[in-house]
């Protein structure tokens, strides 16, 4: 175990929470990132030495001098920069807005002050990404370089007048969705500020809306929970006329990335190699999966594009799974979803087992003196897990299936953190085969008792055809709760899988989950059919 690392006690308990993030997490921004794998997150932090605090405040590139692990002169980049090299996608395509309905009478200046406090506190919100020598590099700009983070848009003309409350609500939502679609299409300049905040003003008597966009290379899903909490706290203090104080400064992503690189290079994760290399070889090639012939990419050939199929369960079935599953199956909703997905994929492929790529939050407590509980950055990473079907086509024993999933997740060492570190930072990676299916579940944002927030909403996903970056999984499923229903977005590569195939798989997953819901609460299924 490397110097400065603490023993990873209690990892079983944390591994069981991999698919059950805190209730403040948002589904919207993580599930629809154009040009990026759905639900996936960086696995390859660039190897960084412990940063010089002065250099960080002066806006220098991340890292120190010398040569990087890749043999390039100068400072190595951070983990998000390495991911962009691997995927070859333009960072301009990554931004996805988060939509928040605010309280009536929200003070614009108080909100502006709170946003400025966030930028000053979290250096990731001052990230600048620059391309040099075919690689992306992260730079932290000084606080003084930050501009006004808030823009105000007068949309009173779009809200309607005197046409009834229901019609006005519809008009407001349509205006908001239209604005958000435009923001998603614009993207964010990676060389510019990674945070963009837009206040949508619909006039007196109507609640304003806030459209927040943060470049995904600067913040992962759990970072959004922290940002939303900090924004609320700073706003409360600002409108109360007190100085904004968000508590002790958290550990920085830059510092953590350097420690992780050193720990991996020193063999700190070597004890996990046996686990990862012993995983069954279920990363099937294209020719072993139905409808998975990759299109040619010769001179003049158009690159493959992404397609999407979206389906959802009914409210009754969704409620049964979300509310009753933990007690009835002694498992979280993530375990249940994975159990059903494993059965569907095994029946489709004809295999007894299949590998699926999952996302872990990456914030394991392995370094002394490093507290990531309030840190913002791209910490999350992905790792493989093996799911099994029902042998011999026997009727599914859902409690047994879910127990097996829960056991496999609890067995994952360091909650999956070591897998990415070994693949990209250690001298002996655990092989290059990766799952061809990725899955992520994101719980909804719960505003709770909030002075600022009233509700969080899911903007419609972008529907334009987007080029597929190298390294994207042929099938990527994102699950989240929208308007009381469990929704599943199946993103696929056009030409690798027929849309009809993906639609059939999506419906098969719904049928499997309906069977689970009926097992837990027979009344839920009857109510949906009626």
Task: Write up what this structure looks like.
This protein has 530 residues and is an alpha+beta fold. The protein has two domains: 52-251, Chloramphenicol Acetyltransferase (2-Layer Sandwich), CATH 3.30.559.10; 285-444 and 465-529, Chloramphenicol Acetyltransferase. The protein has 15 helices and 13 strands. It has a five-stranded mixed sheet, with helices on both faces. It has a four-stranded mixed sheet with strand order 7-13-12-10. The longest helix has 22 residues, at 165-186. The protein starts with 10 loop residues before the first helix and ends with a helix. The model is unreliable at 6-93, 283-289 and 291-298 (pLDDT under 50).
Please give the structural blueprint.
Elements: H1 11-15, H2 28-31, H3 53-57, H4 79-87, E1 98-102, H5 108-121, E2 127-132, E3 135-140, E4 150-154, H6 165-186, E5 195-201, E6 209-214, H7 221-239, H8 253-265, H9 273-277, E7 306-312, H10 315-329, H11 333-349, E8 353-360, E9 381-388, H12 398-410, H13 417-424, E10 437-442, E11 453-457, E12 475-482, E13 485-493, H14 499-520, H15 522-529
Parallel strand pairs: 4-5, 10-12
Antiparallel strand pairs: 1-6, 1-11, 2-3, 5-6, 7-13, 8-9, 12-13
Helix pairs in contact: 5-7, 10-14, 10-15, 11-12, 11-14, 14-15
Mean pLDDT over all positions: 74
Give a count of the beta strands, DSSP E runs of length 2 or more: 13
- The fold-level CATH name of the largest domain is Chloramphenicol Acetyltransferase
Gross CATH architecture of the largest domain:
2-Layer Sandwich
So, the CATH homologous superfamily of the largest domain?
Nonribosomal peptide synthetase, condensation domain
